[in-house]
Structures are given as C-alpha cells and as structure tokens.
Amino acid sequence: MTRLFNRPSDFASELIEGFVAAYSDKVRQVPGGVVRNTRSKQGEVAVVIGGGSGHYPAFSGLVGQGLAHGAAMGNLFASPSARQVYSVSRAADNGGGVILSFGNYAGDVLHFGMAKERLNSEGIRCEVLPVTDDISSAPIEERHKRRGIAGDLTVFKTAAAAAEAGYDFDATLAVARRANERTRSLGVAFSGCTLPGASQPLFEVAANKMALGMGIHGEPGIEDCDIPTADELAERLVATLLEELPEGVESPRGQRVTVLLNGLGSVKYEELFVVYRRVAQLLGDAGVEVIEPEVGELVTSFDMAGLSLTLFWLDEELERLWHAPAATPAFRKGEITLAEPLEATELEIPDLDVVTPASSESRRAAGCVLSALEAAERVVLANVEKLGRIDAIAGDGDHGIGMERGVTAAVEKARELEARDAGAGTLLTRAADAWADRAGGTSGALWGVALGALGTAIGDEHAPDAKRVSEGVRRALEGIIHFGKASPGDKTMVDALIPFHETLEREVEGGAELAQAWRKAAEAAHRAAEESAHLVPKIGRARPLAEKSVGTPDPGAISLALIVAAVGEVISKGTPVTA
Amino acid sequence: MTRLFNRPSDFASELIEGFVAAYSDKVRQVPGGVVRNTRSKQGEVAVVIGGGSGHYPAFSGLVGQGLAHGAAMGNLFASPSARQVYSVSRAADNGGGVILSFGNYAGDVLHFGMAKERLNSEGIRCEVLPVTDDISSAPIEERHKRRGIAGDLTVFKTAAAAAEAGYDFDATLAVARRANERTRSLGVAFSGCTLPGASQPLFEVAANKMALGMGIHGEPGIEDCDIPTADELAERLVATLLEELPEGVESPRGQRVTVLLNGLGSVKYEELFVVYRRVAQLLGDAGVEVIEPEVGELVTSFDMAGLSLTLFWLDEELERLWHAPAATPAFRKGEITLAEPLEATELEIPDLDVVTPASSESRRAAGCVLSALEAAERVVLANVEKLGRIDAIAGDGDHGIGMERGVTAAVEKARELEARDAGAGTLLTRAADAWADRAGGTSGALWGVALGALGTAIGDEHAPDAKRVSEGVRRALEGIIHFGKASPGDKTMVDALIPFHETLEREVEGGAELAQAWRKAAEAAHRAAEESAHLVPKIGRARPLAEKSVGTPDPGAISLALIVAAVGEVISKGTPVTA
C-alpha cells in the first residue's frame, strides 16, 4: 500500500516536483509533464510518451537522451488531459514533428488523439501510436483493442533511437509501428495496490491465487489459478508467447529476441532472476537467441505484486536501435556521449494562456457566451443529484458531480477571459479546456471536445452568426463521434446530439433565426433524451448492467438536453447574432 | 512476500544463475559469487564486496565497470562463507591486492576477516572495510558497531573509482575509509519480508506504525511511532542526519552532499519522489548543495516496506570519484567507455580443489586425521539431541544440528581427500572449509577457523609431531579469539579451549608424548566445560536469557570437550606421531 504522502490530492504534482529535483540534469518540468533537459538536434522527430502516474519508471523516468523527448504525466492511473499532452508536445517539438506513443487505454487514446488534432491544426505534424503488446487483453484478430504494458519500452526506445539517428517522420513512425507489431507481452498478478489515502486496494486477487493476464490497473485477466512454482510460471509464459509469432516469423528457431522480465512493484528482483533463469533456458531450447534482456522494474503499478514477460522479435534495424545508447533517469544503456544541458532560459515553453486580440464584435459576443455558460452551470447545479441517480442505475453514479466540476471550471475560466477582453472563440475554447481538465473521465473530455470545436468554428473575428454556430455544432458532433467512438443508438449523449444538430442545421438552412432554430433543436434533443430510456448501452459495462439501464434515459443525453434548453433561453433573450 | 520460487533451498543458487544469464555482458559466475566479465588493468586494486542475498541490487548488481570487481553472494540474509569470499577474491584479483567491503554484520565481519587472513597468507595484500553508515544502530562513540545499509554504495563506488583511476592499494583504502567516515544513513520500516517458503514474515512492524531505525534484516529500531506524512518523515530524517556532521565539517552550510533516498522494496518510486521533494527543500534551506543524488532501490530487503536516507559528505576527491562513470547491471552513471569483455577462457579461476603433492609420512598421517574426524562425527551424532537441549535453554537450540551438519561435511570431504592421496595438512584444511560452509552460523565458522589453523600448522611435509600439534592448537585458539571476539569467562567454547591448550602445551613442553599430553588436556577441557555452568554469557542475547542459562554448561564448550576426548582415544590407539 502507499503510505507516504501529504494531501492525497497533491500526490501526483508533488511526485513530479521531487522527480525533477532529483534528476534536473536530465529532465525539466513543463506544464503537463516533463521534457528532456538536454539539447536535441533541430528538426529531430520528437517522441512524446505519457499516461497516468503510478507506473514509474513509466513514463517520466524514460525521458532523456536516446529515449523519449517528453512525457505527459496524468493524475494517478488517469490519462493526462489533451491540454497536458499538447503542452508537453509543444515544448518537446524540435521542428520535426511529434510522435505520441502511449499504452492503448480509452482515456489515453482520447486525450492523445485530441492533442494530435490540435497540433495538426497548428501545422505541427503529429501521429499517435498506441502500444498494444498485452496478448491476454484481446485476441490477435482484435489486436487494436489490446492494452499496452511493459512492451511500451521497446516501442518508445526504438522509435526514439531512430529519431536520434536522423530518421525522418515517416521512417520513425514506421519503426515505432513495426516495433509494436513485433512486441508481445503476458503478465500475471498476485495482489493489487492501494492508492494514497485510499482505505481499500484498488483491486484484489484472491489469496494464494494468481490472475493470468490481469492488467496493470487491475483489468480482469483470463484465468485465476493457484500460484505456480517459478519454473512453471516461466513455462506457461514462454509457451503462450511462443504460440503467437509476429507476422513474417515462421518459427522461433534462429530468431533474435529481446526479453523484458518486468516486476510490477513487489515481486522483487531475486524472484525475477529465479524466473528468468528458466525463461532463458526455455528460449534457448526453442532456438531463440536472447539479445540484451532487461530484468527489473520497467512499468510498475505502485506496489502491485505481479510480473510480465515481453518478447521483442528483432530484425536487423530494430536490434541496432535497441542497442543504441540511452541515458534517462531510470534507463541507461551502452556507451553514451552525454548531450549538452539546455540553458535555464533556452527551452521555448508555449504560453498556453496568451489572449490574442479579437474584434469588438467577437468581444461583445464573448459576453453572451459567458451568459450561456452561466446558464448551463445553473441548470447543471440544479440537477446534480438527479443526474447522479440516473447514472447510478447502470454506471458509477458520478455523472452529476463530473458535470458540476466541469461546468464550474468552464465558467470560472470564461469569466477570467471575458475580463481580459478575449474574443468569443478563445473564451469558449479555453473554457472547454478547463472543463475537460477539471471534470476528468470520458464525458468531461467529450464536453471539452464539443465546446472546443464550437469555439474554433466561432473564432475571434466575426460575431457568431447562425451559420457559424450551426457549423460549429456539426463539428462538435463529429468530434464526439470520432473521439468517443459511439454510434447512434449506443445510448450515449450522441443520441440527443444528432437530432439537435440535424434540426438546427435544417432550420438555419431554411432561413430561421438562431434563437428560433436553437429552440426547435433543443426540443428535439429533449425528446431524444427521453426516448433514450428504451435503448440498451453498447459501450461500457457488462451485459447485466446494460440491461438494468433499460427504462432509464442516458444521463449524458439528459445533461445535453438540459444544457441546450437553458442556453436557448439566453439566446432568445439577447442573442449575439448579427444576421 | 516472496511467492515465486522452486525449492526454497535452491533459491539463492537459482537467482545467481538467472542474474548471470541476464547480464552475461557484465558479470560472470565463479565459485562463491560473481566477478566482472570485462577486462581490468593489470595491477589494479580489486574491490570485492558481498553479503547475504536478498538485497538486490546489493551486492551482485553492483559488480561491473566503475564499481565492484566481484561480489561474494551468501545464502538469503546470511553471510557468504570465508571460502566463498576467498574464491571470489582470487578470481577478482588483478595483482594489485583486494579490498573487501561489506555491511558491518557479525557474520560478514567473521567470514570476510577469515578470507583476508587466507589471502594474506598466500601473499595477496588484502584489507577489510566494514561499512558503518546506519546512525541509529549505535552512538557515534561506538561507530565501529554501526551497521551498514544503503551507504554501502558510496563506499563501494568511490573506492572502485579510485582503483580504476590507478590509485595504489593504500590510497584506495584511504578513499574507502574516508567515504565510510563521511557517509551517514537513517532508515525506517513499515513491514518486514517473508522469505521463500516461509509461512511467517521474518519480522514485523505493528499495523499503522513506523519503526525508526529498524535494520534491513529486522534489527530493532530506536522508536516506534505513527506513520507520519511524507513531509514530516523527510523533516525527521534530515534533521537527525544534520545533527551528526562528519569530522571536519563544522556546518552544513556550503557543503556539497550526495543524497541517496533508498527504497527497501515496496515503498515505491512515487512515494520516494514525494519524500525527496521535501528532502531537497530542507537541504536547500540548510545551505547544502546536493550533487548527483539517487532516488530508487539501491539496497533492498525483498519486499520489505521502508526507506532510508543517506547523506554522503563530499570533498573534492570524493566528488570526482562519485561522478566517475560506471556500468553495472543495476547502477549506470555518466559517459562510459565500455571495457573489453573477457574471453570465455580468459579468467583465471583458482582451482580450490587441487591436491598438492605431500610427503609419504604426511599421507599416512592423513589417514589418522580422518580417523580422528570420524571419531568426532560419532560423538557428535550420539549427542545431537543433548547439545540441542542445552542450547535451547538460552539460545535457539540449533547447536546440535549445526555441529552435525559441520562434522558430517568435514568427514565426507576428508574421505574424498584421503582417497586422492592428500597430505594431513591439506586434508584437515579442506575438511575445515567444508565444516564451515555446511554448518553455517558463528559456531560453524569458528570450527572452520580452528581446524583450518591446525591443518595449516601440521602441513603436508612432515608427520605431525607433538610440538606441531600443540603449536596448531595454539593457533586455533588465537583464531577463535580473534574472529569470535570472545574473552575467557564469556561462556563460550573458549572457556574449554584455553585449559585444553594450556595443558597440552605444558605437557608437551615437559616432554610428554602426544597421546598422554592430549588425554590430560582433554580432561582439563571436560572439567572446564562442566564448570561453564556457573558462568553468565557476555555476548549475544538479552539479559533475562543470559541469566536463564546459569546452571547449564555452554553447549559449545561441551561439544569441544566431547570431541577432544573422542580424538584422544584415536591418538592413544594408533598415534601418527613420529617422535
């Protein structure tokens, strides 16, 4: 269990401070995480990694020469926000574009994906590469659904080595993809971890049992069994991993493979070596040549008891890149020539808080956007309990308080920006960021996506007319579908947003004023939200829970309907629309 | 707890195999432990470290360029035997002498000390340097009694860097001593570890309590208290360490210090960083400049929950040596030029099992020595239970089975050597090694010392006459007093051995034959052993236990008396003495 902390809510930020204090020769803190404190070549592709905190040395401990250029560091076991990823990427960018790599978890996929869009929109080339090495988390046919565990390291390491060797963006990305395709892991767990201040473990394994394939956040495994001997465990892991050779590898015999035997926290080094002894024998028996293995703690989960075995099937290029020297706080390898440290003032940290000048129309409109957000806040606050109750029927019941955190943060930020003469687009975009940052969870991130898209469409130049607003709503819907991966009928907020968007667009195209069009659209959203009670969720929890929710509307759809109705009243009273 | 093992008794040797399989580029297994697998300069002083297994990366993980030249690896939490230390030292020696460094624990002091004597006797320069950094384990006036914990690393590292920089033996030793004098640590514990196959933890800390100063094997701390916040813990550790500045340091202000914040196993990196954050602030406030700190797992104790803070007060030379590059399996630093790997056949491993030619008289005498050992075995086997019962009154009751293991191993080895035509001296010396290796514990080690001294005095050239035997017994007594640190009257085997020696010497000097002199000496030993019942032990356990033993003779003294009586009968029947 985690025993040493101050206020649990400060843990994640305090650990970054301590980490940076310890390794200031190698890393530097920037908003959202850390970047290298050493000079990289101009034009070098930047490999930016990240994820929730609690997995040290992943992710911050892997930042440094020969490995990642930066790491976005989320809260404990929680994805960093899109804004954090964006901020770290901007600081890490050397003018050669950014490859974002991370374990394939829903929150990370969402936030890194949003950051990518933002970087692209600013002309910075960026691609995402979620690592999918955990073979127990989905069958090979659904490889894209697999989680990323200790195999993160082989992907990060080879991609970064390629970047440092001067590979261009496409070639670096190709290395990262091939490394991911040729990396396979399988893990086991004996006990879960207890987070700072928590009274219960985050997850548990039955006493004297081993959970085969359990994930590093306690995701269910594929089998519970008695704890085997060290040799039996080695045999099980090696045999299973040798059953799934990467494409192009016909037989293990004659292959060169890097092996990672990774401890998750409290399965200690001595046990790992006893297991590794048998792993090495078995791979030798299978005709596999092991190249520069690592036995130790590479991706942990606090003091979770467990381990994973990773096989990284090398080819000539990947072996050269794996072999390349590296010097990070937690991973050092080979004969390195240390890079020059950056001067204290040298790193260009983007000022994410700058307010660019806006037209006077847009500044006036910003006041109306603020009023709309305040109306949204009032209606959310009046319904927090109700939203929680609806959500609790088939979910975890936190939808109400999540919405409260998000909308409150958005209003606070909007007030600040209105006072600073921001335009309507900037005000709404920043309010969206604040919402996503503070609300957490998927629904918070999606509200951030939606309001951000709307804000971008509105811009800081013109007053937002009906056409622009309608166009913004269309983009908001596209963003939510893209990042939220929900289809109509899946019982999500999309089921209310689609009729809202369609009605608004039809009315506006038919020549209606914004206030009237919006009111009709809001009514459509309301009806659709009520009707969502008949639907069965497709995404998310187990079958019995999904069925339990039939008869209750989707809380996300209800939130949306309530908010658009409240905003409609603001528009009717004093619309900022010019035409 | 330790979950992954095969047969618990194989754990220590299997972990070495796995470790060497993983890091064969850096280390090579030799009898007794590991040495570097890279070439060192001819004439370079060798730094050989070691201790019980279970503390990875101490000790094997610290072997490699820029750090230790070899590590003797004992069983779990048990000192390596003198023979192991000797063997590793012989393999690590580059012709420049050997510095043996290790944590200051009784078993290690004994065995490394014995290995030193043996190396010296073979003309290899050797000194021991026990590390004494744990300030909670004894007051400053008794610094030599303090235990060694994570501060081991600063001593090993700077000594080895000095050796690699070409310092001669005395200068390297001076660096090691100064590093030890300028290294101070303080640790805390929250829970103990459970060894492979054990059903109970080796030691425990009360729930929700913290033991300040508890040792890495569960040695009692100085205070139990509630678990503090991370900041409070940092404040307590820093304040206590700053109270005891090393000699020559008047004030912390302006000093340059290396900091190690060491996790013992399941206090994880994130917690360490949160604590380190405050440590760095406090040292900054005190005007201390922190140089190249390390936050991580440096000296562990399986999955024990705890940490220690070490301050290493640098001077210019120590800072340069700390800064020097290193590349071991678990500790890498700086810009290193990797040394050439050794060829497979290149390392000269001393054949500890070679039998040098002996005179025919000595070979005949070897048969009598074997008979004497067999007689000792018979009398021990007949008294195992009795010896255990006596020992159980104030001890742990294992004296009988320890003696059984030792004497059985000695007879086995003696039979093998007799069949290989060994001389009496070689036969007895090797039997002594086998006794110490197999018996374990202090009493086993001391029987190894005693028989080894006797065997060396007898030699392989002449038949052992009365004078030589008497001289050998004197050396055996000296060895036991030197390594066992017992004085007459402390209620140990010394209380029987002194009258045995004095009587034997007097009789032999008076012209008596060996058989007659030995019989009188054995009678004196028997009387003294019986009289040891009146004594109160000075060494060892707590007062109440010591008093409990009054009225019962010392089991070690009884063993000695039984054995010398049985050997006396063999000598009387057919003595190998020529004059």
In short:
Two copies of one chain form a homodimer. Helices cover 47% and strands 13% of the residues of chain A.
Terminus-to-terminus distance of chain A: 61 Å
Radius of gyration of chain A: 25 Å
Could you list the spans of chain A in which at least 5 consecutive residues all have pLDDT below 50? none
Overall number of strands of chain A: 15
CATH topology of the largest domain in chain A: Rossmann fold
Structural class of chain A, by secondary structure, is alpha/beta
Overall domain count of chain A = 2
What is the general shape of chain A?
globular
Calculate the mean pLDDT score of chain A and round it: 92
- By oligomeric state, this entry counts as homodimer
In CATH's first tier, which class of the largest domain in chain A applies?
Alpha Beta
Number of helices of chain A: 17
Architecture overview:
The structure is a homodimer of 579-residue chains. Chain A has 579 residues and is α/β, with parallel strands linked by helices. Helices cover 47% and strands 13% of the residues of chain A. Chain A has two domains: 8-333, 3-Layer(aba) Sandwich (Rossmann fold); 360-573, Serine Threonine Protein Phosphatase 5, Tetratricopeptide repeat (Alpha Horseshoe). Chain A is built from 17 helices and 15 strands. In chain A, the strands form three sheets. In chain A, strands 7, 8, 9, 10, 11, 12 and 13 form a seven-stranded mixed sheet that branches. In chain A, strand 10, helix 7 and strand 11 form a beta-alpha-beta unit. The termini of chain A are far apart. The model of chain A has no long low-confidence stretch (mean pLDDT 92). The interface between A and B is large, with 62 and 62 residues. Chains A, B: One of its GO terms (biological process) is carbohydrate utilization. Chains A, B: Residues 7-331 form the DhaK domain.
